Amino acid sequence: MKTDPKTFHVKSFGCQMNVYDGDRMAELMAAQGLTATDDVNAADLVVLNTCHIREKATEKVYSDIGRIRKHAKADGRSPMIAVAGCVAQAEGEEIVRRAKVDVVVGPQAYHNLPQLVRRATDGSAAIDTDMPAESKFGALPARRRVAPGAFLTVQEGCDKFCTYCVVPYTRGAEVSRPFAAIVDEARALVDAGAREITLLGQNVNGWRDAQGRGLEALIHALDRIEGLARIRYTTSHPNDMTEGLIDAHAQVEKLMPFLHLPVQAGSNRVLKAMNRSHDRDSYLQLIDRIRAVRPDIALSGDFIVGFPGETEAEFEETLGLVDAVGYAQAFSFKYSARPGTPAAGMAGEIAPEVMDERLQRLQAALNRDQAAFNAATAGRRCTVLIERRGKLAGQMLGKSPWLQSVHVMTDAPIGSLVDVEIVSAGPNSVAGVELVQRAA
Ligand code: SAH
Ligand code: SF4
Ligand code: F3S
Questions:
Q1: Would you say 230 and 195 are in contact if contact means Cβ atoms under 8 Å apart?
Q2: Are 39 and 147 part of one and the same domain?
Q3: In the structure, which protein residues have their CB atom closer than 6 angstroms to any atom of ligand 1?
Q4: Ligand nearest to the CA of 333
Q5: Three-class DSSP category at 57
Q6: Residues 203-237: pLDDT tens digits?
Q7: Is there a single domain that holds both residue 308 and residue 388?
Q8: Which candidate in 112, 223, 255, 419 could, as Cys together with 435 as Cys, close a disulfide (CB 3.0–4.6 Å)?
Q9: CATH number for 202
Q10: Domain residue limits at 408
């Protein structure tokens, strides 16, 4: 037997959709009368909201569980541990066998977390990895207080089946939430303090509703919400970048000039083996079209080095593509073979030292371009959404329209939009000077 938990802590790993899910689970447990604690080692219930994307991410869960248990044992406590997220979906009961956790709950079932926790108080593990046809969203409590920059999941799952990726298995098929439910949630977020909303989906630009409307319809609807100052969306697949969505970047002032558009590799042979369904040229042409309507757009991407069979020449095509695009920021990863994916069975494994060396070269190029992008914004005027306090007295941190971190000396509170001139740029952030003194 375990006693009913009174306090909880949710820790999310992985993508922004997990951050969103983690917030929703926290709201759900708070609605049950539990109190949130920032200290993972003080909580009666620890929810680990996990990521399965690379082997390292998955293994982290098990080391975390070990650490939490060790700490609790030293204090004479035995907290309940719930594993949520993509590892829960992928490994299910295996997690209970390996780590004796109390609850395992998949990304489509977490509205059942309170019942699962109650069931687990009798000492047996409670597992729910169903992907019900009925969406979990209707069963979640309303949003309360949120940060100035809020996430809103509009689409889940993936039908693209890139050969290296677990997401189609852990998150299931592509499902779009209904238009009205999303607009209602966006209004609730704004009422709860959000000034910027990032629409989320594993393939967010694949969002479609029953009438065939695409993501741009949602963006236009959010544009009309008073009090909402900024709109973003992520992550997009190149094949779902429609003309309507591209045009929205010219039409909607609130839509920020930033686009995360993963390409993964620069060689057509590798892209084909990855089942990416776009090639190098179609990607570059797409970038040209987007830049034609929004010349100042900041581009971001994801890259994988060391996909099975990747030759030095093919890797150099990735470097060439990076040079051609000039990314403002990017994420790059070493290929990690994932159980059950087609690529895991492909020949041509790349030696770890070759992967390391390629990743270093790629990251050097991406860092160079990020620094160049930041430097090119020096002298520009823009708004900054203030998100938190900086280290220095009077210093605040926020985001530029191009998603750069900006330091600014201001007495403007968190959640304000401040006009600045960017005066200096570093590799990972820029400094802004406030332009007008606001009325007190
Ligand atoms: N839906 C998004 C991102 C999904 S996962 C998209 O299609 O772009 C985020 C990133 O993790 C991917 O873009 C990819 O670069 C990386 N990734 C996915 N599976 C991986 C694997 N097996 N090994 C290494 N990186 C991987
Ligand atoms: Fe994974 Fe590809 Fe789907 Fe992105 S598009 S989630 S990389 S399968
Ligand atoms: Fe990870 Fe699942 Fe997101 S595998 S990247 S948490 S969709």
A1: yes
A2: no
A3: 53-54, 164-165, 167, 202-203, 235, 237, 262, 264, 302, 304, 333, 335-336, 338
A4: 1
A5: helix
A6: 999 999 999 999 999 999 999 999 999 999 999 99
A7: no
A8: 419
A9: 3.80.30.20
A10: 381-434
